[in-house]
UniProtKB/TrEMBL annotation:
Domain of life: Bacteria
Protein name per the record: DUF2989 domain-containing protein
Matches recorded under InterPro entries: DUF2989 (IPR021372)
Biological classification of the source: Bacteria, Pseudomonadati, Pseudomonadota, Gammaproteobacteria, Alteromonadales
Amino acid sequence: MKRNLVIITSFGLISVFLALIGCENDRNSDVICKNNPEICADLHQDSWCRFEKGDLIRHRYQLKQTADPSGKQLYQQLIYLETYSKCVELASGVQHILNPDRTKDRKRAYAVSTQTLSELQQHTKDNPDVYLAFYRWIRFNDKDSQNLVIEKYNAGEVESVEILSQLAASFVRQSPQKAIQVYKQLFDITPFEQFDPDWLLGLAKIYQHQQDLENVYIFTRANTLLAEHQVNEEQILALINNDTMLAQNLDLKAEALIDDIQTGNFANSSSAELLSDNKPDE
């Protein structure tokens, strides 16, 4: 089946969806390759791009055990393929003096990986799954796919932090109140270790456009505290007319915002009131 060939390679290798032979619980990529040679036959042999190759191998192994891969799984395979292909492209430019066959092997692997990636992209180009629509949007700036992702979001079908983050960024200028809603959702659902300080800057941009300079101050300050960035104190104080008493109060709010995000208590905190919904889009 063409779908199966796309996952592994275009060179007629055995499908990644072959029935699982035996019980293989070891996730070590070398063991996987030994017991499932079709998974690794199109990859380069030496230790370059070890992590990228390992991720790709393990994900292919997962797919081998999946009769009907989800859109999310296919999206992940696209990302792993991209990452591997980029790495082996760089490796293929390194000439191995003592063993030139290694260089040839990397070049072969790069050529195969680009073809495999292209085939999988083609295979999924009409798939309406939100992850695959998201991929087409961010990789090819496909407007129809972007609209599909927005439709899925409006229907309450988007829970991925990665997709929500991209949606929020895209809404900042055209639909700021919708962007605020998405950022609020991100603050509610994202574990602190996955929290992106750039979301705070996105909110600062929105409130700067709305001339809500106190909120600009709060979210800018929170970003600098969370990301440990240096800030020009003169510029940030200029937002509030150099009112140092007000700055002390806003600094406390910025610190409380970070605490509420860190403890997972944002939704029920006073910090959530910063993201008000009472301002119309402009």
